Amino acid sequence: MADRTRIDAAELVGVRLSSDGTRLLLILRDQAGQTVSLSLPANCLNTVLTALPRQVETGTVHQLDTWNMVTAENDRDLVLTLRTPEGLAISFMTKPWQVQGMATLATYSHPHQVTKKSIH
């Protein structure tokens, strides 16, 4: 097989896990009809899955597992990343005032709950 820098698969023929469970083997048929295999580290599967665009039904609600927030490259905005227990992740570029608004809603949206002053 000639060296390739890109494989445009026309069909997924099969998927197997290596005998030691460390590699995922994808068997593909390329545009020319040739069978090509692609071997990936098994631990990269979540990364591949989260890169796929997904159609989300209106009203779908996901459980939040973890989140983090960092300063954006422009030093003005913030990047908020939310992760589900299944490993799905999505990041949002936010303005500080938007985060302050979310914090205000989270703090004061329950009128029957006494809120103590706190710094997070």
Structural class call reads alpha+beta
Radius of gyration using CA atoms only: 22 Å
The proportion of residues in beta strands is 35-45%
List the helices and strands in order: EEEHEEEH
- The total beta strand count reads 6
Q: How is the main sheet built?
A: 3 strands, antiparallel
The general outline is: elongated
From the N-terminal CA to the C-terminal CA, the straight-line distance is 57 Å
- Spatial ordering of strands, largest sheet: 1-2-3
Averaging pLDDT over every residue, what do you get? 85
Number of helices: 2
Low-confidence stretches: none
Q: What is the share of helical residues?
A: 10-25%
Oligomer: single chain
Write the layout of secondary structure elements.
Elements: E1 9-17, E2 23-30, E3 35-41, H1 45-51, E4 66-71, E5 78-83, E6 89-94, H2 96-108
What are the main properties of this structure?
120 residues, alpha+beta, 3-stranded antiparallel β-sheet, 2 helices, elongated
What does this structure look like?
The chain is an alpha+beta fold. It is 17% helix and 35% strand. It is built from two helices and six strands; from the N terminus they run βββαβββα. It has helices at residues 45-51, 96-108; strands at residues 9-17, 23-30, 35-41, 66-71, 78-83, 89-94. The protein is elongated. It starts with 8 loop residues before the first strand and ends in a 12-residue tail after the last helix.
